[in-house]
Amino acid sequence: MSLKIAVIGGGITGLSAAFFADSKIRESGLDAEYVLFEADNRLGGKISTDHTDGFVIENGPDSFLARKKSAAELGGSVGLNDTLVYNNATSAFIYNSGSLYPMPGGAIMGIPTQWSPFLATGLLSPKAKLRAAADLVLPRTKKGEGDRSLGEFFRSRLGDEVVDRLIEPLLSGIYAGDINDISLEATFPQFQKMEDKHRSLILGMKSSLAKGPGESSGKAVKKRGMFQTYTGGLDSLVEAVSGELRKGAVRTGTAVKQIEKHGEEYLLRFHDGTEEAFDRVIVTTPHHVTASLFGDDPGLAFLRDMTATSVATVAMAFDESAVKEDIEGTGFLVPKGNGFTITACTWTHKKWNHTAPDGKILLRAYVGRPGEEEIVDQTDDEIIDVVLQDLNRIMKLDGKPAFHRITRWYDSMPQYRVGHKQRVTELKEHLCSKWSGVFVAGASIEGIGLPDCIDQGKKAAEEALSAD
Ligand SMILES: Cc1cc2nc3c(=O)[nH]c(=O)nc-3n(C[C@H](O)[C@H](O)[C@H](O)COP(=O)(O)OP(=O)(O)OC[C@H]3O[C@@H](n4cnc5c(N)ncnc54)[C@H](O)[C@@H]3O)c2cc1C
């Protein structure tokens, strides 16, 4: 009898799981079939692109890290190579006490690798620069085994000011979290490895740059940027991947309510009252949904208790003439404690050429961070007013946008707290013993970036097809 696999969730993780299951079944002639269930009426989850008046507006993610190859490879295998582009890598800025400062050249994730730009920056005090240089002589900071927070790690190596003004805005921009809570092991284990091997983070980073000209080296960054996307928008990836799936294998508008174990089978109960049995189940929904699918099983408590930050993206289209004072660069980050509501703004039309028609500009601001999430609940008009007020403290904008798109993403940024990796291991062990043949993957589990989600989807498909 044919092996039946259910994939729950049609975001990039679920789509990847279905895509790789499909390829493997076809290539190896396996007697297996899969069905992907998506609650919404569209696929893509957090990936959502708006195409209005020649603009390409990303409502969720706008790109992926080029260093992690799986997103570009997935796009390549569905015929998107021709539309794959790198971002323009002119200066990005950090705001502090009334001024914008260019990101110091050679600072990778805030870790200095070139001394002259680091010493020259006005973003940091002389004392902070001296403290960061102490990384070169300080002993290894790790006391015993186990995880610790990104904040604790970077503060101990480079000092508070470098963390608060440079590293925190960069990292919390990615995780929308408090770096004093976020797990080092689950997010950037390579930095711990650097300390283990080289003792100094600065020396470790320099050594990793010296090994190859990859996109993280200062030189390559200048040439072509560290990120990639598709000129047709990230939804072109969703469309192309879903277009490769078996006819009839995708059921949108179908929310799964519960997974029940019946002997060797799993019965999926749907919100419309129907049910269907499967041999394997891949669950790629956000963690609070995933936990609810397993009833009150205490083995899923970790996902039930996990928190997530609500954020919103605020895209605004203007005529070029609306900008009274132009700044050369791709955008800026605002560290906490500067009295701003926005956490960052991308000058999208400068970062990505394809996103705005000639003569137009596209700005994308971000709001919402831990402890400052109530802004997400405000009306569009209120949000636009606050965002314009903030932007006008930095750049001179004339009037209101021609149109805007505000996308509220409630509980969308899962928080990987210290100990996350260990709890994921325990969760997987629990599933293996009590729910053998059920696999969890996605943004809440082993990486929130698009390439990480794709890798997880692929791995889950392989496990589902090979499990006994
Ligand atoms: C504003 C924002 C900006 C971001 N920017 C970037 C970026 O630039 N680069 C990057 O790499 N990453 C970025 N990320 C992170 C990245 O977009 C996400 O981590 C990733 O898209 C998550 O994919 P996923 O498939 O795991 O989950 P999701 O995209 O959340 O997909 C889960 C799917 O499950 C469905 N679902 C829910 N309940 C049920 C149910 N009961 N039954 C069936 N289906 C259900 C949902 O409708 C959804 O489609 C960003 C995230 C946000 C919110």
TrEMBL record:
* Kinase is among the record's keywords: no
Keyword annotations for this protein, in alphabetical order, are:
Cytoplasm, FAD, Flavoprotein, Heme biosynthesis, Oxidoreductase
By sequence similarity, the record places it as follows: Belongs to the protoporphyrinogen/coproporphyrinogen oxidase family. Coproporphyrinogen III oxidase subfamily.
Species source reads Alteribacter lacisalsi
Q: GO BP, one example?
A: heme biosynthetic process
What is its cofactor? FAD
Q: What name does this protein carry? A: Coproporphyrinogen III oxidase
Sorted alphabetically, which InterPro entries does this protein's record hold?
Amino_oxidase (IPR002937), FAD/NAD-bd_sf (IPR036188), Protoporphyrinogen_oxidase (IPR004572), Zeta_carotene_desat/Oxidored (IPR050464)
Give the EC number. 1.3.3.15
Catalysed reactions, as listed in the record: coproporphyrinogen III + 3 O2 = coproporphyrin III + 3 H2O2
State what this protein does: Involved in coproporphyrin-dependent heme b biosynthesis. Catalyzes the oxidation of coproporphyrinogen III to coproporphyrin III.
> Might you report a single GO cellular component term?
cytoplasm
Domain called Amine oxidase: residue spans: 13-464
- Select a single GO molecular function from the record's annotations and give it: oxygen-dependent protoporphyrinogen oxidase activity
Top EC class of this enzyme = oxidoreductase
What's one Pfam family here? Answer: Amino_oxidase
Task: Give the subcellular location.
Answer: Cytoplasm
Q: In which pathway does it act?
A: Porphyrin-containing compound metabolism; protoheme biosynthesis
